[in-house]
Amino acid sequence: MTVARQPPPHAKVDTVSRIVRVDLDGRGYDIVLGSGVLDQAGALIADRLPGRPLIPIADASVAPLYLDRLTASLKGAGLRQAAPIMVPSGEGSKSFERLADLLDQILERGAERRTVLLALGGGVVGDLVGFAASIALRGLDFVQIPTTLLAQVDSAVGGKTGINVRQGKNLVGAFHQPRLTLSDLDLPSTLPRRELLAGYAEIVKYGLIDRPDFFAWLETTGQEALDGDRAARLHAVATSCEAKAAIVASDERETGLRALLNLGHTFGHALEAETGYGPTLLHGEAVAIGMVMAFDLSARLGFCPAADAARVRMHLSAVGLPVDARSLGLDQGCVPRLMERMQRDKKVKDGSIGFILADGLGKARLVSGIPPQQVAEILAASLPL
Ligand SMILES: NC(=O)c1ccc[n+]([C@@H]2O[C@H](COP(=O)([O-])OP(=O)(O)OC[C@H]3O[C@@H](n4cnc5c(N)ncnc54)[C@H](O)[C@@H]3O)[C@@H](O)[C@H]2O)c1
Ligand SMILES: [Zn+2]
Fold it and tell me: Which residues are catalytic?
């Protein structure tokens, strides 16, 4: 569990800062972004989902910080809400046991087809509540109210929901789009710095996939977005949501283009698995290292200029993200096992590893048939002897 800093003073902002539309046939929805959005949740939900009974579901560490403001806002808008449900914080809550318990509590509160679930928390609560919503009463509507930077730019956009099982992470789930996402940009200010940075790695990822101008903007202004400058934060989060929304709109169920969102993730997942998905290496930190490796590999294979790979490494390092695997307690002896883990990753076809590589900044593409020896050398270069 993480230690939270003090919440920001109650923000009173009456204007909505930005709306990003996720365009999906019949299942499109708005992401409302801005400061003070939490206090407008009632009005925004009443406007888009009028008269619907609500069940707030909150991460137990987030609830003391923000749940009262949410319930007060719902009350203020005259909405009917059941007693909130608490979900213990941490990845362990993405389990069948928690899902069963959550479904029990949802049904005990008299949920009916018109009920809307509200997920207040990071990616864990968003993924769990979204999955519960997809199966409770054969499908309920839900609203995402992401409280981490990672959830605001990634997990609350795109409709992937799910839980972890013994065989691996996120292997059981459903595509189930929220009806609305409410992103209050002030909420991540209570996150520990490491968690904030982990979310930032996914922001950088969107620049590297297909938005080179955005990456260049991050190089000069990303630090301000991290430090909480509101205009910079809004631009960073809104552009990330637009980038992900555009990819999801063109390939909702990941049959092609959506795979680009896995830039840095093949290396990253192997490192996460090797370190036990624990506090040694947060997901976003693994992605930062993985993106550096993907660009180094791209440069080594002659796809992209070495100078581009250097810029990726330099920017991630400048904001305080890890860019190699040296501090993880692993060494070069781990390379064969890391290779094995990558072979098991979803992107393996006929024994050769498929990678998201890049022809330059903002020019990512899926490449298959990468010689394993080249991959092993990139890993070894990032680890101590
Ligand atoms: N569905 C998707 O497309 C998708 C995409 C990326 C990641 N994910 C999933 O998201 C999860 C990770 O999400 P996460 O990084 O948000 O982790 P998380 O939900 O575990 O939150 C991180 C920690 O921060 C705490 N917290 C949350 N908001 C806070 C706040 N405002 N102030 C203080 N503390 C706060 C939480 O209690 C938790 O301890 C993983 O399970 C991952 O698989 C899903
Ligand atoms: Zn990720």
Answer: 138, 160, 202, 244, 254, 258, 262, 265, 269, 283
